[in-house]
Each structure stands twice: as structure tokens, then as C-alpha cells.
Predict the 3D structure of the following.
Amino acid sequence: MISKSLNAVLLFSIILFAGCKDDKNSEEKMATNNYDNVLLQEWTGPYQGVPAFDQMNVNAIKEAMETGMELSLKEIDAIANTNEAPTFENTIVALEASGDKLNDVFTYYGIFSSNKSSPEFRDIQTELAPKLSDYRSKISQNEALFKRIKAVYEASKKAPLAEDQQRVVDLVYKQFEMNGANLDAEKKKRYAEINKELSSLYTKFSNNVLHDEENYVTYLNKNQLGGLSESFINSAAKIAADKGEEGKYAITNTRSSMDPFLTYSTERDLRKIVWSNYYSRGDNGDEYDNNQIIAEILKLRKERVSLMGYDNYAEWRLQDRMAKTPENAMALMEAVWPAAIARVEEEVADMQAVADANGDQLKIEPWDYRFYAEKVRQKKYDLDSDEVKQYLQLDKLTEALFYTAGRLFNYKFTPVEDGKVPVFHEDVKVWEVSDKTTGKHIGLWYLDPFARQGKRSGAWATTYRSYTSFQGETNVLASNNSNFVKPAPGEAVLVSWDDAETFFHEFGHALHFFSSNVKYPTLNGGVRDYTEFQSQLLERWLSTDEVINQFLVHHKTGEPIPASLVEKIKKASTFNQGFATTEYLASALIDMKLHLADPTAIDIDQFERETLAELNMPEELPMRHRTPHFGHVFSGEGYATAYYGYMWADVLTSDASEAFKEAPGGFYDKGISEKLVKYLFAPRNSMDPAEAYRLFRGRDAKIEALMRDRGFPIPSE
């Protein structure tokens, strides 16, 4: 998942907060260097300057944000009110260069929001949300500014600009148009009011989820550890001790803790408690319940797009995505759904047979699925996930990432000496990224791998500074963030195969950032149902022989993973695809259907239940993200009506991976790798995604590749 390191993905982030940092005018430098607030000061030190993460103070964020907004609006007013006739340079380029100081401050804001949240920060965040909304509205509704943008846009249709310049103009104009720039004064006023209300609701939604993640902890005693691995037990003991519960074992309310517990624990009653805690986040009928908040969000989104003449939010949102329409997105999901739930029925039957043979006298329930799926895996493929985990060390997987980047992108990762680059937590490590051949510096990669209090769950990638060249080349500051359970001192961090794939996935986003060759900040943006494709594709390199043979070694003996175990992993590659596909697609379908429905008197819990029933959702498993904690969709707008995008991107991924399979050099084929970087990574959003893919593949992607990947029947076959 890509993150802007914000609580909510800002509607105009590709325009407003992408300023270049290494070529500011001297007047601004002189002004900003005099700030007492550290968050407003120039980034200093090596590598074109780096954030002062070691000096961050939550008490400084409010003033810094307010000052940053004030400076940005002054820049916008200067652009809008100049007497010069509008041109690409004095309007679009000037807009691209604006908001630079605020962008710096947002880097710190994002860390406080995602990596180091606290009650103090959440109060500030709640106070700032409506102010940020006002700030965005003052830009999106600046009539003089939009008049100039529109003039440049219309002139470019008569006399086209250079290709990248035309792309920037088209994207900027479309963003303003989609966000109400053509509305009359009365509608603009209401549009701004709605955005302000939504900003507060997004903040409250996400803070409610974080509250439930932090406050629902299941503590075990020594008699309740059946089935759990030694490393997991040691980690759980350390977490409990850190929380003041010495002698107990803590299962936290995060996926990284919940998932292995449900897979291996023999304590069925405890599995139910842990499962219920996790899937009830935001849905506990208390002051942190999100159902009414979601209902309000849906109503406001519908009203806002109605001001512009759209029938529903999905119609408005998808017009600039690859899918283009909700109907196209639904068609893809509905094509895969029947095969997915049919496979679940087979998987449940296999699990029930194992339970019956064991004399367990139970019917498979959602909190049993992972546990008995693991039993079936062992029976069908003689494959024990915990055995595989012994060869999946985080440190070695990190080396595998670097190896893959070296082979495909010609990148070299060198550890940065501790203390040379400030970090916001002792767990964060930093590497310098450079070109292996020329030695040219490309950027820095920050890794924040472990779960902790105040850090949001999941895994994500973000940038602190993106590459551009319109004011001189900038280096990239990118980060990956995970929530692995921190081990006991001296022990290796062991992860599941799924978590290892996610690690590769998020690194794919980082490689997308590092490989960018775009001139203008707006072109670093992305099309939501396309930007997940590159990172999903990178997951495939985890299972290549080169990675397996070099980096999957036993954490105690150092012995490489046995060929027989690798063969079992590959044979079981389509195992449990019913579960994986169905839990994801259920969330994607609910996302889309919620935004196509009439929100006037919607009951969120009832809508979720009834819609899943209509879809014949198997009762033995839940959605991956139940609606009350569906942060992708309701903590902001980045993935709203766009969660289907992972499936859309998966079609591209499966099809592209077949191109590598067909190549003489396989997944490390030099010719295909060069095309991968040239057409799929480096351009970012500087060309139409569909055209970029055709340049890589020679044709459009085909859904048949996806069905083959998942072991599903292809309707035409």
C-alpha cells in the first residue's frame, strides 16, 4: 500500500505538496532558516538535506502546519494574481514549485500520524483537520488561479506542449475540475463545507480504529500456549512485559499478532476471542464505534459529487482510473467471484474432514479457518508453514530485496552509519541507494519494521522527498514500514511466507519511487488501480530460484532451505486461494456497492450483512477489512471505490509475470528487465498507464493469466 504518510490522502496532494527541495529561491531560504520551530527549518546535513527526525516534538506540529499553510497560500496568491498573461511557466511550473515548506512539515506530520501517534497528537490532528480542509478549498476554489490554469489548458489544445508538459497540464486541470473548480459560488461554498466535515470524520474514524487496536489485548498464561512456536512465545512475553504484565503473554490486536495465533494456537476459545477483537475494531457499540461515522461519510460524499452532476461517488472517482467506470470494475470482480467462493467451499470441506478425522466435533467457524487450513496444507502437501518460517529471516529477506534491486534496477544499497542520518525511532535503519555501475547517488531508504504502541497497523511505503528535475535533480528519500512482531533480544525475526511477499510488495513501491525519471512533481502521482501493479509484480521475485537458493537459510543452522521443501512450497502455490481471493474481493465489492447505494438512511452493519448474503459470502470467513475498520476507504479517499484496484493490478501482474516466464533469461532476463524499468517503473504518471503497459507487453493484459495463477477454471476453457 502506498501512503502519503498522512491520516487522509489529500485530494490535491499531487499538486500542492510535491515541491522540490534543493533549488529554492534565496529569499525563501533566508526566511525559513530563521524559524525557531525545528519543523519549519531547512533540512540540513548530507544527501541534499534530511528531515530532523531526531528533533521532532509533537508540541511543534500545530504551529508548523499553520505556518506552512500560510506560506503556501501566499505563493498561490502570487501565482493567481500576477498581471502577466498565463503561460505554462508562470502558472503550471510555478504551481508545481509551490507548497514546498508545507510539504516538509507534512513529512513530520505523517510520522506523528502513522509511526508515532499519541493522544496528544490525535488532539492536534483533530484540531488541524478542518483547517487543512479550509486550506485545500482556498486553493481548489481560487477562481483567479483556476482561470489561469484553464487558459493554459485551452491554449495547449490549440498548440500542444511537449509531451511531459502536456501531461502535467491535463492532470492539473482535471484535478481542479473534478474538485469543483467549475461550480458556481453557492455550490463551491457547500463543496468546501462538505470537505471540512469529511476531514474531521476521516480523522475520527482512523483514531477510533487505532484506539481499538491499542486497547484490546489478549493476555495468555503458561497453560494457554499450545501450538505456538518458541519465537512467537518469546515475542509475546516481551510485549506483555513491556506493557507491565510480566509473566504473561500478549496477543495484540494487529494482523501480525493475530494471524499466526489463529494459525497455530490449539486453544479454540482463545482463537475466538482474538478473532473477535480483531474483526470488531470500530464496531463495539461504544464511543469509538465507526458505523455512524461511515454513514455520514457516505452521505457527504454522495452530496458532494451530486453538486457536479454525478449520480454517485464511484462514477466521479473512477473517471481518471484505468477502469474508467464502476461497471468495468464490477465486471472484473464478478468474473472472479464465483470461482473464488467455489474454491472456499472445497477448502472448507477439506478442513471439516480433517477436524472430523481428529474427532474434534465442531463445525468450521471463521476463527478455525487458518488453524485447519494449516492442517490441510500439512496433509495435502506435507508442508508446515512454521517449518518454512524458520528459513524466512527478516535480515536475509532484506538482503534479498537488495539483490533483486541490483539485478533488475542496477541499484546498490549501502548501510548508512548510525547517527549520520537522524531517525525518529531506534528501530529505524537507513541505507544509501546508488547506481552500481556509475556510483551515482539516487537516494536513501528508511526501514521501520516493527509494531509498537502508536504505530498504525499494516504495511506501507511512503516518500519524504520525491525525484524531480524541473529545478535541478533531487534525490529520493523513501521508506518502508511494517508491523513485524519484535523478537526477544538475540533472536531472529522470523516471518510467514505471506509476510515475506508483503515485504517484497512494499519494497516494489520504494523501487517505483527510486526509479522515477519525471521532470515535474505532479507526474510522480499515480493512477490507483495501476500503482499497485508494480509492487504486486515484485512479489514474484521472492519465489525465484536465485532468491531462494541464496537468502532462505535456517536461522539457527545457516543451512539453505532444502530443495524438497521448496518443491512443496511451489506445489502449494495455489493452496488457500479461495480464502485469499474471497476475503479480499468481499471487501472490494462492499466498498464499491456502498458507494453505489443510496446513503440516505443507510445502516452500515445491516448493509454489510445483507450484501454479503446476496453475494453468497461463505460464512466460514470474514472480509479482509470489515467496514467499521476499513481504513483504506474511510480514513481518507485514496482507496474509496478503488479497493478493487488490487485485483485490477493483479491482472496486469499475472500477465506481466508470464512475459518473464516466457523470456530466455526468466525473471532476470536483461531485455525484459530493461523494458520493465523503462515503461513500468521510471515513467510514474508521465504517460497513460494502458499505453505504458502495451509498450512493455506489446498488447493489453488478459484475465486468463490471473485465473491460471490462482488455479481457478477459465470460463472459456
Q: What stands out?
A: Strands lie at 218-220, 249-251, 411-415, 429-435, 441-450, 460-465, 476-484.
